[in-house]
Amino acid sequence: MTQSTEIAQNNDSQLIDEILHGQPQRFEVLIKRYQSRIEGYIFHFTKAEHSVQDLTQETFTTAFVDLSHLKNREKFKSWLFGIAHIKCLQWFKNEKGIKELNKSMEKSTPMVTYEEFEPVPEKEIGLDILNRLSQLDSLLVWLKFIEELPYSEIAELIQMSEANIRQRCCRALAGLRKVIL
Fold it and tell me: What fold characterizes domain 107-181?
């Protein structure tokens, strides 16, 4: 069986069972599955190319060490992105200061109601366009429409209400729509 076939055939829950039952080398499959996505998320969040590899490694190390504490194995992906998110916040605190992070996340966007929202086709959302949004809105769009996490899991990850996440995603998509059209 080729490596890519193995990655596709094993679901996260199966792999976690194998890892926790004496096959720690199976964690490599999870790394291969999620490494580029975690790297993309970290780079998108921090904009610090020089820190991406270190933060990615820290994310996977923490995930491996704490794997036995994962309550719902079906939510491994969200849990892993949660670890990456925390690593990025720690990086901001240590490297740039929390003031800069807050300033970046508080850029205002115009209010829009959920009824006014028309989805932007996924393939039209480019990373350069996402960078025109505030840091937080860009991350929410990334998690919802690129990583396809449900609003409930994003709410847990970002520690905001689900309604607030939905509203910010609507505003962000409305802003993207103006840029695209």
Answer: Butyryl-CoA Dehydrogenase, subunit A; domain 3 (1.20.140)
